[in-house]
Specification:
- The complex is a heterodimer of chains A (300) and B (289).
- Helices cover 35% and strands 28% of the residues of chain A.
- The two termini of chain A are 40 Å apart.
- In chain A, the strands form 4 sheets. In chain A, strands 2, 3, 4, 5, 6 and 7 form a 6-stranded antiparallel sheet that branches. Chain A has a 4-stranded parallel sheet with strand order 11-13-14-15, sandwiched between helices.
- The mean pLDDT of chain A is 91.
- Chain A has 9 helices and 15 strands.
- The radius of gyration of chain A is 26 Å and the shape is elongated.
- With 300 residues, chain A is of the alpha+beta class.
- Chain B has 289 residues and is an alpha/beta fold.
- In chain B, helix 3 packs parallel to helix 4, helix 6 runs parallel beside helix 7 and helix 7 packs parallel to helix 8.
- The mean pLDDT of chain B is 95.
- The chains are: A alpha+beta (300), B alpha/beta (289).
- Chains A and B meet through strand 10 and helix 5 of A and helix 4 and helix 5 of B.
Amino acid sequence: VRLDDEAFWQYLKAWDLPTLPAGGEPPAHVEHVVCLRLGIDWDSAQPTLSLSSHGQELARITVVPSIGLRDYQARDLALSGNVPREYLAEFSRIARRLYESAAASDLTFIEFDPLLLVPDGTLLIMDGNITIDDSALFRQPRWTAQSASSQPSVQNSGARMTYVPLKGHIGCLANGAGLALATMDVIAHYGGAIQAANFLDVGDSLTASDLTAGLRLISSQPGVRVLLLNLFAGNRCRETAHRVYEAMQAVASPLPTVVLLDGSDASDGRALLEASTLPQLMVVSTLREAARRAAHVGAD
Amino acid sequence: MSILANAESYVIVQGITGREGSQHTLEMIHYGTKVVAGVTPGKGGEWIHGKPIFDSVIAAVDATGANTSVIFVAAPSAVDAIYEAVDAGIGLIVSITEGIPVWDMLRLREHLRSSRARLIGPNCPGILTPAQASLGIIPGAIAKPGNVGVVSRSGTLMYDVVHTLTQMGLGQSTCIGIGGDPILGTTLVDVLHLFEDDPETERVVLIGEIGGLMEIAAARFIGTRMTKPVVAYVAGKTAPYGVVMGHAGAIIDDEQTAADAKTQALRDAGVRLADNPQEIASLLRWDSV
């Protein structure tokens, strides 16, 4: 999650990073304007620092986590980024503070932009951005309250659901992120004008309460004309069929609902669903068929 | 033959007394996996599912000779459980746990480079070598022994593909879900390497998704080093930019990390690309192999 503006300034203050005092005038003369940024290089699994100016990256270094950012690395970054020599010591201090604070606060991204080099030899952070690792919020309570969530996530029975609304007409629900993405892809291929209205991963536990919460979410989204459930239930298709039935009864949405239930005992699960008395339920056996049916029904 | 998991895997389960750990351990045992012990600090001396529980990994290893650990410990303590397994000399560590903080993974990856342990995951479904061993939560009933190696970043999507392969008579050597996090112990390239060297694996299925550059690296490896045919599917062609799509690592930051770039790189490397997951099985059955 991203920290909001107020939290950003509090963070700088907490780490004693130099900013304008409240109500202070920006400096009349500025020697140099740069952007200093820390991010994670996901592929090498190392933190990286970069320095840019006017939108162009001038220098980049990677850091070994157990060693941390060394002074010489900060100096190298500054020198490659055309920071004048008289600012080296102060720049290194700020870069190291940035790194130490990021490591201690579980940041996955922090940038000072712009960072001003003022003629008296000081540096001033005028603005920036901070992102805290969602998975580390449990141990960073200080910033949790002020973080502006970038996307809605739905909490239910401990499972983490991810819901991303889109523009189409088919409300989608799948148990697993990859399965949900694949569902959208297949709809895009076979759906024609009728496209996915959302991404929803309800997690892999497939409890009745997760399914109910998920169904409620997609059936209440504006523009949705038909629902498509893509569930892979391993060897629990029978149980899952019962839970789908329960969830559909609980939500009682009048929208036509296409259900693809797969797994090693799929035929049992599908038979149970087919025998149910829910008039809006359509049972299919392939994802292609599910997409075609949903698009067909949604076009009416 | 197979990779990583086989009938010689002697398995401990860390977090065996938790709800998830207990349930999946039972399924692993029913599948025929040689689960030899569990570890839950504070419950040493007790038994579960007919297996002894130890307070520490080192005690479990000393008593049983275990060489593999599957971790179900909840996120705040999971990274500690991984370090403990590494220090106890466990060779293969499978972390099912989701939600390990990024900075913990950065430090752990650095530590792993200087150890001989291999980590699969975190946030992964584990490894299944049909008829030999199940390390994690992949449902055994959907697979059967054969010569197709399967590697995937996602769980249920892989199950779906494996199930289709099985129904079409295409058995698997080993199925591996490497995990949905942006920082993983084992990458697609690592697994491709193992499949390339495994005499029992004849063809490989790669299931990728948006986010990160792992599929681009995989394409480079396939193009330069791999002799075995590969069929791939990359999920998320229609995903929006800048949004995390369920997996922590599934986010399109730029064109390179989108599905189209990955698909193109893999195609350029000679990989057969499926438009949707169901097409994978038919692409595997081409005559020229």
